[in-house]
Amino acid sequence: MGGPETSPCAGFAGVRQDGVIRLLGPVMVLCQEAQMVITVHRDLFGTGQLIKAADLSLGPGACQHVAVNAVEHTVTFAAGLHECGTTLQMIPDSIVYSTKLNYNPSPARNSVILRTNPAVIPIECHYPRKGNVSSQAVRPTWVPFISTLSAEEKLAFSLHLMNDDWSAERPSNGFQLGDIMHFQAEVNTGNHVPLRLFVDSCVATLTSDRNSSPRYTIIDFNGCLVDGRSDDTTSVFISPRPRQDVLRFMVNVFKFAGDARDLIYITCHLKVTPAGQTPDLLNKACFFNKAGNIWSPVEGTRDICSCCETGSCRLLGHSRRVNPSSRWPGRQFRRDVSFRHDHMVREVDLVVGPLFIHSLQDEMEPRKTPQDPEENPWMALMLAALAGAVILVLAALIICKKPQQPHFVSHS
Questions:
Q1: Rounded mean pLDDT of 172-188?
Q2: Domain that holds residue 304
Q3: What CATH code is carried by the domain that includes residue 22?
Q4: Are 252 and 189 in contact (CB under 8 A)?
Q5: Does a structural domain hold residue 400?
Q6: Who has greater pLDDT, 343 or 95?
Q7: Prior bond of 240 cis (ω within 30°)
Q8: How many CA atoms lie within 13 A of 189 on its CB side?
Q9: Alpha carbon 137 to chain centroid distance?
Q10: What 3-state class would DSSP assign to 228?
């Protein structure tokens, strides 16, 4: 652990002076690697009146002092960066730990009056987001320690249908057989270190329950777009990616045979890994290249896609994770976020749907209305009766207008 003299951080309790932060002289903050040390002079207001050490506390947790120097009239607090209610804030260049020094005067012995006002003094320690605060050089083997500090922040996953040129979200959820669906998976990494997004699996169902039957698998085996292996499809991942935290793929429109509902729900399992982590059998985006008749990765070597043909995508010592299905309220998007500590992987299930699928035959068939005779037997009877009445009226008119035969009288 490096001492505060070499610690590349800054503490704030008001005015900064030559690397040591002071508030009108009485408060000094030292930002160390794992803690902050606050030294307070008991002449806090510069009036010559010494305050009581017991009237000082640190943070919402009201942590007490650790030392009192009777000679120098100082009170010292020492607290870990995550103790005493300290808050963490990420800004573009720094990690900021904030707390407050509280002064709550108590009445003197046998007195009911106060002669000073309460005071709250903001305390901050700023740490650079690049590198570490130790005096010893450390070369991280995975991610710098500053990225670990932001690991508790939530990631915002999304899965959208896009228009054909990927410029905007598709406004309609209706398709015809023969169309191509354009999906864009994305994660908002916020203050995280760069992350790479993968679509681990996708399944189509008639309901929002991914375990319902029937179901059709689009992506399987930890990132294999198996739908593109069929002879009648051109489903692929789009390579290269626009960004590491975005993954696009196209799927030929389909519907479940023999079902009159003509709709589907698509549930996809998304996950992220550090962008610097090499893609492997469990973290990949592979599609079948029809031109070369071979499985190809969006990034990484081709050997990570070889298991897409056999369906045995395992790493030695790993077993495939089975995700329990959960239900969430909501019309289009549902999510279930979990956390894996082995590679700090964040995962989520998202549902898109319902998507309405129409065939060309459906569009060409005339639509029957309730007024069609085939659909309304009473209307047919009424039309038949009306036709009969018209016939009778016409017959009567014909009979009435028929000319009479002339009557001849003979005279003998």
A1: 94
A2: 156-362
A3: 2.60.40.3210
A4: no
A5: no
A6: 95
A7: yes
A8: 18
A9: 36
A10: helix
Q: List residues bridging with 351 in a β-sheet.
A: 267
CB 7, CB 135: distance < 8 Å: yes
> Who contacts 12 (Cβ-Cβ below 8 Å, separation ≥6)?
21, 29, 122, 123, 124, 125, 126
Q: Which two tokens stand for residue 265?
A: 């729900």
> Could you report the per-residue pLDDT of 361-400, keeping only the tens digit for each?
555 555 444 445 454 566 666 777 777 776 776 766 666 6
Q: Nearest-5° angle of CA 364, CA 365, CA 371? A: 135
Domains in the chain, number: 2
Output the six-digit token pair for 96.
């900021």
- CB burial of 204-216 (b: ≥16 within 10 Å; e: otherwise) equals bbbbbebeeeebe
The pLDDT of residue 327: 31
Is the separation of the CB atoms in 161 and 169 below 8 Å?
Answer: yes
Both tokens of residue 412? 């003998």
207 CB-near residues (< 8 Å, 6+ apart)? 265
Asked if residue 290 and residue 211 are part of one domain, the reply reads: yes
- 237 has pLDDT over 60: yes
DSSP H helical ranges for 36-191: 145-149
Q: How many helices (H) and strands (E) does the chain have?
A: 4, 23
pLDDT band at 289 (very low <50, low <70, confident <90, very high): very high
Nearest 5°: phi and psi at 238? -90, 125
Judged against a pLDDT cut of 70, whether residue 173 lies above it is answered with yes
- Are the C-beta atoms of residues 36 and 79 closer than 8 Å to each other? yes
Instruction: Give the residue from 131, 149, 167 where a domain finishes.
Output: 149
Q: How many residues does the chain have?
A: 412
Higher-scoring residue by pLDDT: 61, 27: 27
